[in-house]
Amino acid sequence: MFSPTITPSEWLHEVCERQPQAARLFRATENEQRTRGYYHTLREIVQQPFSWIRTADQMTKLASDLRPCVSQLRNIILTGSGSSEYAGHCARLALQTRLGVNTLAIGGGALLTHLHALPPGRPALLISLARSGDSPESVGALSLVRKTDPAIHHLVLTCNAGGKLAANFRQDPRVRVITLHDETNDRSLVMTSSFTNLALAAYSLGFLDEPELYTSHCRQLSNVAKQLLETQFDTLAQVGGLGFKRAVFLGSGPRLGAILEAALKMLEMTAGQVSAMSETYLGLRHGPMSYVHADTLLVCFLSSDATVRAYECDLIRELNQKDLGMMKLIVGDAVPSELARDRDLVINCPGLAEVGEYSAPVIEVVIAQLLGFFRCLREGLRPDSPSKDGVINRVVQSFALHLPAGSSLGETH
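Predicted structure:
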């Protein structure tokens, strides 16, 4: 058990004492870290166990105020752009199970182009997730839904108090805006701590009547993540530094958001030099298995549910029988040793089963973030800004919004 009074700097010192690769990176001078372009990203990844506690405390204090937001609902829609959409996928099934309400995760861009994709049944709550809150489609989608469907109420969860989502809608009586702590507003190009904190903030809506249970979950997650970083940082550095050119991330059920984000992190962090895809275990057999070549890293996130894991283990055994992939990285609690071939690696995460299926994805996202980080360094890129030609940016640049006839979204300009 970790001391609740340990400071982030004290804990990081412990990590560096146990993990030589962490010591090499963190004990370089600040100037060297900035020159190599990893100063922000690495800190934003490893601060997550502590930032989750801060987010849990913030959302717990708001529990009584937020209860009316989920009262008498027929639908909850989680939306965002890019990684923020995937954060919604991480929270969706947990909310559906805890609240007994239909839930849907859908991209802000999809709302702009196909507004009729919104599920029928009102009243409904649209939860907009955003790091910066400045993506054109995120602001445009909220504006469009707000104008066209008055029976939908809105909750904005953002990491940027100065972003358009927060600034434009803070005074709107139909929109509740919550800004997470500024430390979650990642300075790096890619989303890391913002992703997991947005997912956990949305997750809290399922625990408004049991805020202490939510806080307990987040503290358990923090401890699992701390132990992961203290014991597996160098393992992830080793795997991320290998020469794979493809990566496949496998997961089931509530891990959909985690594997979508994991594949995106690998693409973003390597500027597309490593291609990546996400798939369910059962879905891999239906064609995508042809993607798994001798240069492919397979990252297998194992469920703790006995029935789900049985399906997953069958697929892994089939991959072994067919001798597919360069190597597998198998992640889970109490992973059966017989699943790993000689060239595979296993990361056992004690406590992952205890935190539950719906909480585990944020831990697996941390693993994916570090894999992408180390593969980025292997490619000679800068994790803080891996897109050296400016193909992608921290915030998607402005583009024209083509609106339905008669609509006007003045707030987005």
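Summary: The CA atoms of residues 138 and 251 lie 27 Å apart.
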